[in-house]
Amino acid sequence: MKKINKVVLAYSGGLDTSIILRWLQDTYACEVVTFTADIGQGEELEPARAKAEMMGVKEIFIDDLKEEFVRDYVFPMFRANALYEGVYLLGTSIARPLIAKRQIEIARKVGADAVCHGATGKGNDQVRFELSYYALQPDIHVIAPWREWELNSRTQMIEYAREHQIPIPKGKDGEAPYSMDANLLHVSYEGKMLEDPWNAPEHDDSMFRLTVSPEQAPDKAEIIEIGFLRGDAVSVNGVALSPASVLTKLNELGGKHGVGRLDLVENRYVGMKSRGIYETPGGTVLLAAHRAIESITLDRGAAHLKDELMPRYAEMIYNGYWFSPEREMLQVLIDKSQEHVEGTVRLKLYKGNVSVLGRISPKSLYSMQHVTFEADSVYNQKDAEGFIKLNALRLRLGKR
């Protein structure tokens, strides 16, 4: 085992990372620095500080990263309309590179020679964290407890916590129905009874945090408007908002109307399939609005090329390659396409659905003069004959 002097732990303050904290102290006999990121998970973070202090931690970092998260990670991803396997809005995936980046920054600041995460050896997050660590600090040492220790069951972890006087949160002293990850973009639920893809979520209204069920949503639709500039949402209902405030407002509006629930069996990067339940109300509304404003401001060739590249871009994020040269190359192309993506989109939210009602832009490429069914003086319909014949030439010659 390599001698470690100081390690920066991604610390939530929950049971698992508190066990990891003590395990690091016991196993590596090193100083542990905790880092807790506020990326909009909706929980009070000061208890994490108190728990870390109680466990003897001297250097504690609790950073508000909500604006950076949305501005530099979520919004660039949404400029690409990124969906993994056609439906997943990548809420967990996009948060990991930011957490990893800040961990490395803290490690440099405090002189740590290692970083540690709490991701399991079966999941995607271990890959996302570690690819980001190595991209930013190639010589960093990574500690992944789930790949090292012998605490391979919930029962063993509870016993370890009791032995080491680690507080066990109410409801954790038994079988939790699912595990959860939350940030400003989404909430995910996995594990336990959800592992069987045939099982519907039990007591779904008590499980979900951001959305009401469509059945319980208001019977009256709500009309909203989202303003865009260079591909990013900058206002809601005419009120200019910061990136994090935009997403917060859209979460509120979408959640109120039951928008953004997803039940997905996905293909993990490590090779297995997994089942997850996701809530992404604001992101679901934002995606619909962004595609709508692009529909009148993007050239056909640019729009189609973006759609062809999008699955590859989404896969890069899902698999943990945010800091890869290929993702950065694609981002330049995507951002170039967004130079004239500005204007306003009007949408209707109603019982789990998002419907586009209208879109308007000062950079619109939509020409009513050309598309009208009435008489016009800008388009000669006879030109279509030559266009069709030239495109049909290879088809006609192929019929031998």
What can you see in these coordinates?
- With 400 residues, the chain is α/β, with parallel strands linked by helices.
- Helices cover 40% and strands 19% of the residues.
- The chain has helices spanning 15-28, 46-54, 66-79, 96-110, 125-136, 154-163, 204-207, 243-256, 281-297, 300-319, 325-337, 368-371, 383-397; strands spanning 6-10, 31-38, 60-64, 114-116, 141-143, 179-182, 187-190, 222-229, 232-236, 239-240, 261-267, 273-279, 343-350, 353-360.
- A five-stranded parallel sheet has the order 3-2-1-4-5, with helices on both faces. It has a five-stranded antiparallel sheet with strand order 10-9-8-13-14.
- Strand 2 (31-38), helix 2 (46-54) and strand 3 form a beta-alpha-beta unit.
- Helix 3 packs across helix 8, helix 4 (96-110) packs across helix 5 and helix 10 (300-319) packs antiparallel against helix 11.
- The chain is elongated.
- The N and C termini lie far apart (73 Å).
- The mean pLDDT is 94.
What keyword list fits this structure?
400 residues; alpha/beta; Rossmann fold; 3 domains; 5-stranded parallel β-sheet; 5-stranded antiparallel β-sheet; 14 strands; 40% helix
